[in-house]
Each structure stands twice: as C-alpha cells, then as structure tokens.
Amino acid sequence: MPPKFWGHFFMDLLIFQAPILMVQASLDGILLGILFALIAYGMALQWGVMNIINIAQGELVIVGGYIAYFMYKAGVHPGFGIIVSPIIMYFVGWGLYKLVINKVVDRDLFISILATFGISILTQQLMNFIFGSDVVVAQSNFGTTMFFDGMVTLPNAKIFAAIVSIAFAIGLVIYMRKSKLGRAIRATAQNARAAKIMGVNTEKVYAATFGINAALCGVAGSLIAITFTLHPYVGLPYTVRSFMIVIIAGLGNLPGVALSGMGLGVFEEFADYILGTEFRIGSVFTLLVLILVYRRFKLSRKREYLK
Amino acid sequence: MKKNNLILYGTILILGLVAPFIFPGFKLQISFLWILIVLAMTWDVQGGQMGYNTFGNILFFGVGMYLCASVQIGMFFPLAEWTEAGGEKTFVHTPPQYFQGLLFGLILAGIIPAIVAGLIGYGILGLRGHYFAICTLGLGIAAGEIAGGIEIIGAGQGMTTPPWPKNIGDTELRSQFFYYICFGLVIFTFLFLQWAYKTRFGLVLNAIRDNEDKAEAMGIYTMRYKIIGWMVSAFFVGIAGGLMGNMVGYIEPVEVAFAGPTFGVFMVLMAILGGKGTLWGPVIGATVFHLFKEGFWTFFLGWQYVALGVLIVVIVVFFPEGIMGWLREKYPEKFGEVIDEADRKAQVELK
Lengths: 307, 351
Hints:
A: mainly alpha; ABC transporter involved in vitamin B12 uptake, BtuC; two-stranded antiparallel ribbon; 2 strands; B: mainly alpha; 2 domains; globular
C-alpha cells in the first residue's frame, strides 16, 4: 500500500475528522475499563488463592446481569441489582465450588481450565433456554450528562457503574485486610499447607473465595445490565478480558489491575471507532495473543540473561 | 503379538472398506467419525505426547476449510462474485474442474495451515502451561471473529462450497467418494503417527512432556521439535477441514469453520476420553464419543449442548485417565509392564 493510501484511510475515519470523538472514546473506555477491572479483580483473587483459571467467569457476570434484568422486569429499579445480585451469586459460586471446583483445586491447571470451560458451555445453554437468545437491556432512566456543548455525552448509568465498582473494590480490599476471613484467605494464598497447620479451614476458605469472586461478578453483571446489553453468549470475551488484565498487571498488583483495565477499555473503544464494530471482539482476542507472545519474548530474554 | 496386530489391522481395514455397503444410510456419519478420529489423533500429538494442551488446532481446521473452498472456486470463477451470489447456480463446475479443484484445494489446505503453524509456532509454543492453553483459545476465537468480518469469503453469512457435478452421479456416489477420501486420510494419519512416535521425534516429544527444561539441558532444540509437531498436526487438521467443508457444503465462520465450542472442544474431549498420550486412545475415544453423540443427541433435542457441558465436566473431573488409562490399570500385562506378583501382594497387604 502506498503511504498516500494510508493517509487517506486515516483521514476518512470519523474519529480523525472529529477529534472530539477521541475524548468521547477515552472517557467511555475508562468507565468501561473500571468495570473490567472489577471482574479481573475477582479472577486475580481466585487465581492467587486457589490457582484456578475460571473460564466460566464471564458466564457468572452474565448470570448476575440477568438477575438485575429480572428485577427490572418485575418493576424494581435495576440499580438495586448491585445489592441483590451479589448475594445470590455468592451462593451460586459457593454451590459451584462444592459441586465441581473442589475436585479440581489441587489438580493440573489444564483440568480446571477444561472443567470450567464445560461449566461455561453448560451455563450459556441454560441461559439460552431460560432467558431466551434476545439481546436485552435494563433501562435505568438515570439520564445523561453532556460536556463541551453536547459534543461529549456520558450516560449517568456509566458513571454510576464506575463509582459502584470502585466502592466495591475498595470495600473488598479493606475487608481482606481487616476481617478474620480476609486474613485466612491471604494466609491460604501465601501457603495453603502452612495455613492448614495453623488451623485455617482451607476448604471453607476456598469456598468463600469462589463465592466472593462470583459475588463480584454479580455486581459487575448487574452494572453491565444497566449500562450495556446482555446476551447469553457474550460471556467468554469478559473472561478473556479479565485474564488479559491480570497477566498484564501481575497477580496481587491491585493498582495495576485498575490501570490495565482502563487501558484495555480505551483500546477497545478506539478499536471500535477505527476498525469497525464487527472487529471489536476479534481485536480483543488478537490483543490477548499478541500480549502473551510479547510476554514470552520478554521473559525468554530474561532467562537468557540469567544464564 | 505381531500376528494379532496384523489380524486387528486387517479387520479394521476390511470393515472400513465395506462399511458403506453394510450401512448405506450412515455413510456420512461414518465419514464424520473418520474426521473426528483425525482431529483427536492430531490433538494428541500436542496434548498427549508433548504435554501442550491446545485449544487452537481448530484454527487450522477453519483455515483449511476456507482455503480449500476458495481454491476450488477461485481456480475457475471469480471468488467475490461467487460469494455474492450466495449459493445460486450462476457458476457450475464441470466434473474435471471439480476434481481438479478438490485435489489442489486439499493439497493447499494441508500445506498452508502447516506453514501458518510454523510461522506462529515460534511465538506461541514458547508459552508454557495455562498461558499456552488460554493463548490458543484466544487464537481460535480471534480467527473466527476476523473471518466473520472479511467480505470476500462471505463475512458473517458464510459461503457455499462447489456442489457435486450433476452429470456424473447422484448424491450416493458423492457420499461414497468422500467416505473413501476420509478413510484414506485416517489410515494415512494413523500410519504416519505410528511411525513418527517410534522415531527420535516421538521420544523428544515425550521428553518435552516429562521435563522440558531437562530436555533442553540435554542438548535438544525443543523449540524445533515443538514447531514440527504442530506443523504435522496442522497439516492433517487442515486437510480434514477442507474435506469437512465439502461434505457439509456450507461454511460459516463461527458455527462450522472456527467452531471452538463444538469441534474445538470435541477433539480435546475425545482424546481425554480415550486416554491421552497413547496411539489408540484417541481412536477409541473418538469412536465412543461419536457413537454416544449420534445415539443420544436426538434424545436431548435442543439440550445437546447442556449435555455436552455436563459430559465435559464429568469426563474431566472423574475420568481424566481415559479408557486406555483404565485398561492399563486393570491389565498392565497387556501393555508390556512386568508385575512382580510378590510385590503386588505385599502392597495389597500394606493397604
């Protein structure tokens, strides 16, 4: 391609003709990224404590979202989903742990990936039967806020979602530091065997961790229900996004999780404008592959250096 | 032992050759079984022998499928107009054109995915464990999403493969023709892998599975062998994809070509069900799985994928050793393992 072509290509794009859209995309991306970071926080928690990668993470989010949607259908304001959804999802996660996850905790990681992949397919299909395959959204009627004389519009629901996510994340961090269960979880993450010797019931800790993760997914899901759309088959992208955020930030790096979540959100919004909406999910998965390959070359250089 | 093997192989060969005449109604089903066996066996090169659990072999399946169809059409007609027409009979292949196209299409459907595997292998096979698994999972889905956005191969609507030429025979002949190609592919794959596992290549793959760092320290260029292993898989999976596209007659990016939730998982499941890391395991696993699937799918009607999810969880959680692993535990003598009877008794007493 001659350089002139690319010049035209970029100039023709809406986002370069109206630079104010960049502000819009960045703000949208940051608010979206905060939500991703909340899901990723749950994934980091269970990965760190139980050494499990949960492919069904995205499905837990969507189930949480449907809970909020049904509250909206029943006439309750869907904003209350952020209270009801995590409570229900905690028990869903707890039950899931007792049924399946406790049998794969100390096994090969691939076993847990495949088992949760099975759960993910199962949940998708069940949701398809129970909730139908339509794209649904819960109206929150929060209105919108405008900046720059109406050039940049932000739905208040998105701002609400970001504030709630931050509040839940901070609350959980404090809970992990101060409470007895939080200390037990952190001890188990450091060394499960030593924690067991010191009298921690690790089985209970694992169940609670999985439940807390599911509850976080429930919060995120109910926020997604009011800000975006729900569909039984959109779970896997959320899993991949949270996995990506965790590996960029590293386990146990909470500010990193928040930052890389926002970065991913901004990337997605820009990819949406530049490549077109049909490549949005594709660009997320391609980014995952690129990041993993980049990480492998970076680590292999380190390994050679150590030699 | 040698004679027994000969009888076994002979029986399977004869059964495979006469099967379309014994079960004329199930020709297409048995052809699908051969394809599934190829997928399971080639997955086992990574998952079983090499210890690299990949979800990404479906990428080569889809690439092979699209490539074969594109070559078949593009050799004689403009591809863009074909997909535009959306299956209408504007362009018709004559029989020589059809078979020429199929031959070149299948050859390229093997070679190009192998080259793709070689190119991306250096980046991706350097990942270990779960990073590799998730990365390959992303690879397959990204390919499906991207293929769904490319206009010339039909984007989200998909494309049709060339129909069977009219004036040389009916659909019976068509399914017989594809049956024997699939059967030939299975036999070739099996014999090739059986030979490959006996050479140094097979030993190196097992060494990588058992301890990759140690193998590297012993002076083996593990990366080279890993890439060659992936290329072998990609070659056979690509051809299987090309055949599958022609048998189904319609290619759609997410449901048929890059079908992660169906074929992408089936191949893993079949290999695990049969017992990974063995030559016969994937064959047995694929057969059992296919019989189960075809036999019981109709009873679940609409709940197939729910049943599939339950099946995955049950097999993975409660039956990770597979059928071959179970047989090995039960009859170790048959696998050439020498059991000291006195030692065995002593162990039983200890329990």
